[in-house]
Write a structure and sequence with these properties.
By secondary structure, this protein is an all-alpha fold. Helix content is 72%, strand content 0%.
Length: 177
């Protein structure tokens, strides 16, 4: 059975991952409206990846005989000043997620929950990748700021993103084939 403080903190983070999915889906819609379909595609896949993070945490809580508590999810912004501003916002968001994961790791050590500490290491590694990828896009966006041709090249590159293999499928429901 999982420690109650740890369970509460994991549920809080699970709901934050839902917000991350909403944020990236909102960004995808904004990019689609602005004609940057490659950017929209990248953000839509990012939204799905965040849903995979939710599923991973959801399954873990259930595996530890915890209670999954789904809370309200704040509405994300729907517009950004520019493509670069949207990716800057995504980068700041990912830095905040990293801090939240670090806080969860600290709590797991405090309550001596070694199973959760081990579980969270996947998220620690994932956040290194998340920040690096978004930081790279931010950097390239700065290089082409104001250059429509450069923006179109980045859009084409983002359109080539494939779905992440890190997305966990939902567990089978008993009685379903």
């Amino acid at each position: 059975m999982i420690d109650k403080a740890m369970e509460e903190a994991l549920n809080g983070h699970l709901n934050h991952e839902f917000f991350s999915s909403y944020l990236y889906l909102s960004m995808s819609a904004w990019f689609q409206r602005t004609g940057l379909r490659g950017h929209a595609h990248w953000m839509r896949l990012q939204s799905r990846e965040e849903q995979g993070h939710v599923t991973r945490m959801y399954n873990y809580l259930l595996d530890r005989d915890g209670t999954v508590t789904l809370g309200s999810i704040e509405a994300p912004p729907i517009e950004w000043e520019s493509p670069q501003a949207a990716f800057n916002a995504a980068y700041l968001h990912e830095q905040g997620v990293t801090q939240r994961i670090n806080d969860l790791v600290d709590l797991s050590l405090k309550v001596r929950d070694h199973a959760t500490h081990n579980f969270l290491q996947w998220f620690v590694r994932e956040q290194v990748e998340e920040e690096a990828v978004v930081s790279d896009i931010v950097g390239r966006s700065k290089l082409v700021e104001g250059d429509g041709r450069g923006l179109i090249l980045i859009d084409q590159e983002l359109a080539a993103r494939k779905a992440s293999p890190n997305v966990e499928p939902p567990p089978p429901v008993l009685g379903e084939a």
